[in-house]
Design goal:
Elements (H helix, E strand, L loop, with lengths): L44 H23 L8 H22 L5 H12 L1 H20 L6 H5 L4 E3 L2 H4 L13 H13 L8 E3 L4 E5 L2 E10 L2 H7 L4 E8 L5 E10 L11 H8 L4 E2 L3 E4 L5 E12 L3 E12 L5 E4 L12 H14 L3 H5 L6 E3 L4 E5 L2 E10 L5 E9 L5 E9 L1 H11 L6 E2 L3 E5 L2 E9 L5 E8 L6 E4 L2 H14 L16 E15 L2 E8 L5 E5 L14 E6 L7 E3 L2 E4 L37
Helix pairs in contact: 1-2, 2-4
C-alpha cells in the first residue's frame, strides 16, 4: 500500500514533468506591463502658452530676486539665467500639454516642435558662449591681454618719500581685527548685538593711514530686533598709534551686505543698476566721516568674457541708500582697483608682451608677480605693493610694483633682491628661539634704501617685535621691541655695511616735542613684563614714562642729572609717554641691557637715591 505525505496542502505532483502548469503555461511567466494612463492637456493652445509663460515668469522673478544676475551679455551668470528660463518653459509645456514621450529622444522632438522659440534661444546661447569664449581666448588675444595694464619705470628713492618710525603703519588686517574686537567688547550696548565685518579697508583718512570696518548683525534674530535703527557705528583703527575709535552715527547704516531683502546692498545695487557688473563692494568713509560703499563697476574688454577691468564705481551712502555712478571717482576714494585684479593684469603684461608662444617656449623677459601683496600710503593715495620675479626662477625678485588703487597708475622699480618669503625667513631666523612668525612685508623707504618691514607675532597672534630687512642685501636684518628701536638698529647696520653715512644713523621723529631740565624725582614700575622709569623734572608736575628696553640710559640716571626728553605731544596729563632720553651734563656712552640669565647688579640700585625703587605712581 503506497504512502502519501501531505505537507500542509503542498503537492509534489505539481512539479512533475517539465514544470508545466495548467494549460501548458509556465507559472513564472512575466506579467504584461500595465498601460500608463494618458495625461490630459490643459485647456487650449493659447491657454497653455499663457500658463507656461506665467510659470516661467514667476520662476524668473524669484531667481532674479535671490541670485541677482546682471542682465549683461558679458556676464556669465546672464547665460545661466536665460538657460534656466528656457528649461522651465519647456518643462512646463511638457506637463500642460499632457505629452508622454518615449525616452529622451521623444522629449527632444517634442521640445523642438512645441517649444520652438525657447529651443532656438538655447541654441543661440550655446553659439554665443562658444564664439565669446573663442574671441576671449588668451592664445588668440595675447597682445590685447598684455595691454590691459600700462606700466612705467620709476625711481624708488625719488618717488617714495622716506618715512620716520612714528609714521610706519604697523597694524596689519589681522591685528586690526583683534584690536577692534577688543574695543567692541568694551561696549556693553553693542557687544551682544553686533559683530565686526572682516574686510578691514585700508584708507588715508585726514592724512593718516587707517583701517575702517563696518559692523554687522550678530545673527538673524539680532537683525530682526535692530533693523529699524540700522547699524549704529563703524570703527577706525589707526595703523600707526593702534588707537581704535568707535564712531557712533546719528542715524544708523541701513544699506549694507549684512541687511536682508530690499536693503541688502547687492540687491539695492541690482535693482537700480540691472545691467552693471560689480566687483566686491568696499567700505570707506569720506573726509567728513560719512560712510559709503564703493562698488566698482566691472567690464569685460576682450571678446565677451575676457579682459576684466574696472570702469568707474557706484558710491552708495550707507545711511540713506542714495547712490550715484562716477566714471572718475572722488579723490577721497582709496580702494577702486582691487589688488588681485592689478596683479592679474601685470601677469598678463609680463607673460604676453612678447607673444603667447614666447611665454611657453623661449620665455624671454617673462616675469610675474610674487605671492602676496601689501599697501603703502603715498601722499593722499593708497598704493598696492607686490614683488616681481622671473618666471624661470622664484628665488629672488628682479624688482617690485607700486600701483595706485584709485587710478591704476602703475610703476615698476628695478631692484634685484630678496623675495618677500626670503625676507620673512631672514627675520624669523633672528628670533628663531622665540618661534615668532613674520607678517607679509611692507615696503618702506628707510634712508633711501628699499626696506622690508614686518611685525613678528607670537603663537597667540599678538605682535611681539618688529623687523627690517634690506631688499637688496637681505643679510642685513635688524629687530627691535619697538619700531623706533628696530629702525635705530637697522640704520646702524646700514652704516656698518657702508650703505649710508654715520650722520644718517639717527632716528628722527616726524613730530616730537622736547623738554629739558634736572631730574627732580624718579619712579619705576613693571608693566606687561617691561620696566618703565618715570622722570619728573624740576619745576614741573608731569612724569615722563620711558621704557628701559628702548632707553637703557634710564636705568643709571639719578636725581639731579640734567636730561633732554623727547615725547609725542598730546593732551595735558600727569603722565606722558617719553620716546627718548639724553643726558646733557656728560657725553653719551653706549649702554646695553644685561642679557637674560646673567646675574648683574642694577646700576640704578647702587646709587644713593631711594627714588629709583618701585613706588606707586600718581593717578593719571
Amino acid at each position: 500500500m503506497p504512502f502519501t505525505f501531505h505537507f500542509g496542502g503542498f503537492n509534489p505532483g505539481d512539479f512533475t514533468g517539465n514544470f508545466q502548469g495548467e494549460g501548458g503555461g509556465s507559472p513564472f511567466q512575466q506579467q504584461p506591463k500595465k498601460a500608463r494612463k494618458p495625461r490630459k492637456a490643459i485647456g487650449n493652445a493659447f491657454t497653455r502658452v499663457l500658463i507656461n509663460l506665467g510659470v516661467t515668469l514667476l520662476f524668473g522673478l524669484g531667481y532674479f530676486y535671490v541670485e541677482l544676475p546682471a542682465l549683461n551679455f558679458h556676464a556669465e551668470e546672464f547665460y545661466v539665467f536665460v538657460f534656466l528660463l528656457c528649461a522651465v518653459y519647456c518643462i512646463s509645456a511638457v506637463f500642460t500639454s499632457g505629452f508622454q514621450g518615449e525616452g529622451a529622444a521623444g522629449y527632444f522632438r517634442f521640445v523642438k516642435k512645441q517649444c520652438t522659440i525657447p529651443f532656438f534661444v538655447l541654441v543661440a546661447l550655446i553659439a554665443a558662449i562658444a564664439i565669446g569664449a573663442l574671441s576671449s581666448w588668451v592664445v588668440l588675444r595675447a597682445g590685447s591681454y598684455a595691454e590691459l595694464l600700462t606700466v612705467e619705470d620709476g625711481d624708488f628713492a625719488a618717488e617714495v618719500e622716506e618715512i620716520s618710525y612714528d609714521q610706519i603703519p604697523m597694524v596689519d588686517k589681522d591685528s586690526a581685527q583683534r584690536l577692534a574686537t577688543r574695543k567692541l567688547g568694551e561696549l556693553a550696548d553693542m557687544v551682544s548685538q553686533f559683530e565686526i565685518r572682516e574686510d578691514f579697508t585700508q584708507i588715508n583718512y585726514q592724512g593718516r593711514p587707517v583701517r575702517v570696518a563696518s559692523l554687522a548683525y550678530a545673527d538673524l534674530i539680532k537683525w530682526f530686533t535692530n533693523r529699524s535703527e540700522g547699524l549704529p557705528a563703524y570703527l577706525i583703527v589707526d595703523m600707526v598709534t593702534q588707537d581704535v575709535e568707535v564712531v557712533r552715527l546719528d542715524e544708523g547704516m541701513k544699506y549694507t551686505p549684512a541687511e536682508h531683502f530690499g536693503r541688502n546692498l547687492q540687491r539695492h545695487l541690482r535693482f537700480h543698476y540691472p545691467t552693471y557688473m560689480f566687483a566686491d563692494p568696499v567700505f570707506e568713509i569720506d573726509e567728513e566721516g560719512t560712510p559709503y560703499w564703493v562698488c566698482p563697476r566691472m567690464v569685460k574688454t576682450i571678446g565677451l568674457f575676457g579682459g576684466t577691468d574696472i570702469r568707474g564705481a557706484v558710491l552708495v551712502n550707507a545711511v540713506t541708500g542714495e547712490s550715484q555712478y562716477y566714471e572718475e571717482v572722488p579723490s577721497w576714494v582709496d580702494q577702486l582697483y582691487v589688488a588681485e585684479l592689478i596683479m592679474e593684469q601685470y601677469d598678463y603684461y609680463g607673460m604676453y608682451s612678447n607673444g603667447f608662444l614666447n611665454s611657453i617656449l623661449g620665455q624671454k623677459d617673462v616675469k610675474v608677480t610674487t605671492d602676496g601683496y601689501n599697501y603703502i600710503a603715498i601722499g593722499d593715495d593708497v598704493y598696492m605693493y607686490t614683488g616681481v620675479t622671473s618666471v624661470t626662477s622664484d628665488q629672488s625678485n628682479i624688482g617690485f610694483l607700486l600701483s595706485n588703487q584709485r587710478t591704476k597708475e602703475t610703476r615698476f622699480y628695478s631692484c634685484a633682491g630678496a623675495t618677500e618669503a626670503s625676507a620673512q625667513a631672514s627675520a624669523q631666523s633672528q628670533v628663531q628661539q622665540m618661534r615668532y612668525t613674520a607678517t607679509f612685508p611692507l615696503l618702506l623707504n628707510i634712508a633711501d634704501q628699499p626696506t622690508y618691514f614686518m611685525a613678528l607675532k607670537g603663537e597667540d597672534g599678538l605682535v611681539k617685535m618688529y623687523a627690517m630687512v634690506n631688499v637688496q642685501q637681505y643679510s642685513i636684518v635688524s629687530t627691535g621691541g619697538t619700531v623706533a628701536a628696530c629702525e635705530a638698529s637697522y640704520r646702524q647696520a646700514l652704516a656698518d655695511n657702508g650703505l649710508i653715512g654715520d650722520g644718517e644713523t639717527e632716528v628722527i621723529p616726524s613730530d616730537q616735542a622736547e623738554v629739558s631740565g634736572a631730574i627732580a624725582e624718579i619712579r619705576s614700575a613693571v608693566m606687561d613684563g617691561n620696566s618703565y622709569y618715570f622722570f619728573r623734572l624740576e619745576g614741573g608736575d608731569v612724569f615722563y614714562a620711558v621704557s628701559a628696553a628702548e632707553n637703557p640710559l634710564a636705568v643709571i640716571l639719578n636725581v639731579g642729572a640734567r636730561v633732554t626728553i623727547t615725547y609725542p605731544p598730546g593732551p595735558a596729563a600727569s603722565i606722558l609717554s617719553g620716546a627718548q632720553i639724553h643726558r646733557e651734563d656728560q657725553p653719551e656712552e653706549e649702554i646695553s641691557l644685561p642679557i637674560q640669565g646673567e646675574e648683574q647688579e642694577d646700576p640704578a640700585l647702587s646709587g644713593d637715591t631711594a627714588s629709583s625703587e618701585e613706588t606707586p605712581l600718581p593717578a593719571a
